């Protein structure tokens, strides 16, 4: 048979290379997310002990890529022990009898809300008496987006207005947006205040921030209720989630503020 490949000029060299030499060997990308993958299996009850964790890891494509290396099995077992230790140190799992692994509420929260290990580590560290300002600050450090030179002035100007309820310390005229933390902190409040930027990229990033922030807040709320049994942080997370979704700070913002055309 004859196969005809239709492509553009830019992709032609890549296609020709594949046709002549074939594809490169596939590589596993599990290692950077191994702790999340292992936690999922523990949360679902697939992995119940350190031994079963090692056996499970040896059934993965990641192990297939590594088994040709010298002393691959011992290296995989050591990696598995390190990963379980990370889950244990974060309080997501606990040891049972005969080296069994028992998932704790945080393990289920991390799995259910698809939270990364780094995000979960930050959530675990949030004080139970955190207020809205603090939670906004925590969120801004968890969401990473680039800061572009052409948007710094626009962000600085909106920071001076009443739209940004919680401002950075210092003189407003001297404040400059330098980091992703600054940018996200301002954009989160612009979402709640229904501010419309002229910059289309900022508008798109606000939609992305909304999704990321609500996911993290839902996880923090669930963790607060299931693990610490303290409703204060859960309530503040619920209030902030409601503010982001409805685009209003609270009841005093007015019912019509939730309708964007008004």
Furnish the topology, listing elements before pairings.
Elements: H1 12-21, H2 34-43, H3 50-57, H4 61-66, H5 72-89, E1 93-95, E2 101-103, H6 105-112, H7 117-125, H8 132-142, H9 152-160, H10 180-192, H11 200-228, H12 231-246
Antiparallel strand pairs: 1-2
Helix pairs in contact: 2-5, 2-6, 3-5, 6-11, 7-11, 8-10, 10-11, 10-12, 11-12
Write a structural description:
The chain is an all-alpha fold and 262 residues long. The protein is 56% helix and 2% strand. The protein has twelve helices and two strands. A two-stranded antiparallel ribbon has the order 1-2. Strand 1 and strand 2 form a beta hairpin. The chain is flat.
Summary tags:
56% helix; single chain; 262 residues; mainly alpha; flat
Quick gist of this model?
It contains 12 helices and 2 strands; from the N terminus they run H-H-H-H-H-E-E-H-H-H-H-H-H-H. It is an all-alpha fold and 262 residues long.
């Amino acid at each position: 048979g004859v196969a005809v490949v239709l492509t553009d000029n830019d992709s032609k060299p890549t296609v020709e290379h594949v046709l002549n030499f074939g594809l490169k060997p596939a590589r596993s990308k599990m290692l950077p997310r191994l702790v999340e993958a292992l936690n999922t299996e523990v949360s679902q009850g697939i992995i119940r002990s350190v031994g079963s964790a090692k056996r499970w890891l040896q059934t993965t494509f990641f192990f297939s890529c590594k088994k040709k290396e010298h002393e691959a099995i011992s290296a995989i077992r050591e990696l598995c022990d390190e990963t379980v230790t990370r889950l244990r140190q974060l309080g997501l799992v606990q040891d049972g009898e005969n080296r069994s692994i028992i998932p704790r509420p945080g393990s289920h929260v991390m799995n259910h809300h698809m939270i990364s290990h780094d995000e979960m580590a930050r959530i675990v560290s949030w004080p139970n008496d955190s207020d809205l300002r603090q939670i906004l600050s925590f969120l801004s450090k968890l969401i990473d987006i680039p800061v572009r030179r052409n948007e710094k002035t626009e962000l600085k100007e909106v920071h001076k207005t009443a739209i940004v309820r919680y401002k950075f310390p210092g003189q407003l005229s001297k404040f400059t947006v330098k980091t992703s933390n600054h940018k996200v902190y301002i954009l989160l409040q612009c979402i709640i205040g229904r501010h419309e930027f002229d910059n289309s990229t900022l508008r798109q990033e606000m939609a992305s921030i909304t999704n990321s922030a609500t996911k993290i807040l839902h996880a923090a709320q669930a963790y607060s209720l299931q693990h610490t049994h303290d409703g204060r942080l859960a309530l503040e997370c619920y209030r902030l989630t409601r503010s982001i979704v409805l685009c209003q700070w609270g009841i005093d913002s007015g019912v019509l503020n939730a309708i964007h055309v008004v």
